[in-house]
Amino acid sequence: MTLAYSNKPVNQNQISWFTLCLVPSSPRNVTVIVEGNALDVLWMLPEYPHGKIKHYIVWWRRSNRNEIYMKENVTSSPFIIKHLEKFTSYSIKIQAVNYVGIGNSSAPVLAQTTLAEPFDDKSSNAGATAGAVIGGILFVILLLIVLFLLRRKILKRRHNEAVTGFQTWHLSRMDGQEPESESQTDQSEDLSYVAILMDWEIMPDSLKMLETTLGKGKFGIVKQGLLTTGESDPEVVAVKMLKGKKLSFN
C-alpha cells in the first residue's frame, strides 16, 4: 500500500492524504520438477503482495510452438500439470492476483518432459500390483504342475524298471533249467512283490512275509504277512500274489 500526498488542503492548516492500492509483484523462485510426462511447479510469495493474495494463475505452453498459453487458477503452491506430451519442452510462468487485480508475471521457466508416465497415478500403481500378484499365482501353479508331472514320470520309470528287471530275472531262471522247487518259486514271488512294493512307495522293510500259506491256486498264492505303518503295532494282512498281475494285500 502506498501513501500519496495532496497539496490541495481542504482548509487552512490541514493536509490531506489518501491511499493508492497496487497489484502484487511477480512470484519468486519459480521452480519446475519433471516427473515423467507431468510437471510439478513450485513458487514463493511475491516480495510485495500489496494485500492478501486471492489466487495464482499458472500459465504453460509448448515452447517450440507459437501457441496460446494454457492457464489454471490455483490457491497455493505447488501445482502439478499432468498428461503432457512426452519429450516436449514447455514454458511455464506464474502471476499472483490480489483484490486489486492481476500482478506481474514471473520470468518463463523452461522444462522438458520425459517418459509418458502419469504423475502419482494410483490406478496405474494398483494395476501394476494386481499384475504382479496374478503373475506370482500363475508361476506357483505352473511350478506345481511341473513338479506333479516330474514325479509321475519318475514313478512310471521306476515301475517300468521294476517290471523289466523282474521279467529279465524270471526268463533267465527259466531258460535251460529244471523246474523250480517250491522254495525257489516262493523266492521268485518274494522278489516280484518287493519290486511292486517299491513301485507303490511302500518300503519292503515295512512288510514281513510269513511262512504261513493261506491259499494257493492256478491264479496265484495267498500268504500271511505283517504290515508296519508308522509307530503302531504290526498288522496281520493277507498278501495276494497273482500270476501275471500286480500284487496286493488286504
Automatic annotation (TrEMBL):
Membrane topology of the entry: Single-pass membrane protein
InterPro entries cross-referenced by the UniProt entry: Ephrin_rcpt_TKs, FN3_dom, FN3_sf, Ig-like_fold, Kinase-like_dom_sf, Protein_kinase_ATP_BS, TM_ErbB1
PROSITE patterns, per database record: FN3 (PS50853), PROTEIN_KINASE_ATP (PS00107)
SMART domains assigned to the protein according to its UniProt record, in alphabetical order: FN3 (SM00060)
Cellular localisation: Membrane
Pfam families per record: fn3, TM_ErbB1
Gene3D superfamilies assigned to the protein according to its UniProt record, in alphabetical order: Immunoglobulins, Phosphorylase Kinase, domain 1
Domain of life: Eukaryota
GO cellular component term, pick one: plasma membrane
GO molecular function, one term: kinase activity
Main location: membrane
UniProt KW keywords: ATP-binding, Kinase, Membrane, Nucleotide-binding, Phosphoprotein, Receptor, Transferase, Transmembrane, Transmembrane helix
Descriptive protein name: Tyrosine- kinase Mer isoform X1
Protein species of origin: Paramuricea clavata
